[in-house]
Write a structure and sequence with these properties.
Blueprint lengths: L12 H24 L5 H22 L8 H25 L5 H8 L2 H12 L7 H18 L11 H20 L2 H4 L4 H23 L10 H29 L1 H4 L2 H17 L5 H18 L1 H10 L1
Helix pairs in contact: 1-10, 1-12, 2-9, 2-10, 3-7, 3-9, 4-6, 4-7, 5-7, 6-13, 9-10, 12-13
Length: about 300
């Protein structure tokens, strides 16, 4: 998994914009999931999510006259990415959230950038840990805790196995970020990578759904449930993963995982705009901490301040 190079990657303004867009898309996925779970079991939702996304992406490839890679190396990589980025973390989070509060799960999942900083430092040559990066990640994580509410931390230790499951999902996401860098070296585009990953995930999830949910015995979902599933599949999965792999190719594993910090911010702002929810002082404080953490990781603001102070 080691790669060559000797400098840490930065992010362009375009990359920051794409990460912001991705956070809005994934922040909005909570709305779709909230509707879908009223009519379908979790693993069936996950399988429909990646399966419909795979079909949509294959149609795009067909319509644009492109062809998926056919060599074995590419499909082994797609399978690996599907396991690390979909199959394992989705299952661990779903199981973990049956035993711990969603707020605590969100904070545990927000440790993904911490795991990624360590994984990228150990497994790559061009994404080494720096003081700015580590401090920025810790500040951003503190911001997530403040936004969601520090009271949820009272649940720490009450169900260690479930908490370890969610932390395991965060570790999987971090390894997926490092693993996914190989697609650029293989000359596989973000569209092809997204398509291959969700296709492989669908194949692996089908046996799990058959064994756990027995979908043939489920009631036929209503229009609202299907609408939520389509939104989750087409917007929060198919479109989102094209953006994800584009930023991963240009900015690296550590930077793309910063989206984890921005998802709670987007979810709160969407709730304010579309659901009339109130924004509290702690939300502003948390957003400020996240902004400070991202600025530290980006490094450009600190560099300007150093030059002015010199």
């Amino acid at each position: 998994m080691k790669t060559s190079g000797n400098v840490n990657r930065g992010m362009s303004l375009g990359d920051w914009g794409r990460i912001g867009m991705l956070s809005i898309i994934w922040g909005g996925s909570f709305f779709f999931i909230g509707v879908a779970v009223k009519g379908l079991p979790p693993f069936t939702i996950v399988a429909l999510r990646v399966g419909i996304a795979a079909m949509a992406l294959h149609l795009i490839i067909l319509a644009t006259g492109q062809r998926m890679p056919s060599h074995r190396q590419a499909w082994f990589a797609f399978l690996g990415m599907g396991v690390l980025n979909n199959l394992l973390p989705f299952c661990l989070i779903v199981w973990g959230q049956t035993r711990i509060a969603s707020g605590l799960a969100s904070i545990l999942n927000a440790t993904t950038p911490l795991f990624t900083v360590v994984a990228a430092h150990l497994l790559t040559d061009d994404e080494k840990m720096t003081a700015n990066r580590l401090i920025g990640v810790l500040i951003g994580l503190a911001g997530v805790v403040v936004i969601i509410g520090p009271d949820v931390l009272k649940g720490l230790g009450s169900d260690v196995i479930a908490q370890l499951a969610v932390l395991g999902a965060a570790a999987c996401y971090s390894l997926a970020g490092v693993f996914g860098r190989r697609f650029r070296r293989m000359g596989i585009s973000p569209l092809m990578t997204a398509t291959g990953q969700v296709s492989a995930s669908t194949v692996m999830l089908i046996p799990l759904v058959v064994l756990s949910d027995r979908p043939w015995g489920l009631s036929v979902p209503g229009i609202d449930i299907w609408g939520a599933i389509l939104g989750l599949a087409l917007i929060s999965t198919a479109f989102a993963y094209i953006i994800f792999f584009r930023v991963l190719a240009s900015a690296g594993a550590t930077n793309i995982m910063l989206v984890t910090f921005l998802i709670p911010v987007s979810a709160i702002l969407l709730g304010v705009v579309f659901l009339g929810e109130r924004i509290e002082i702690r939300h502003f404080a948390g957003m400020g901490l996240i902004g400070l953490g991202l600025a530290a990781i980006d490094g450009r603001v600190l560099a300007i301040l150093k030059r002015k102070g010199a």
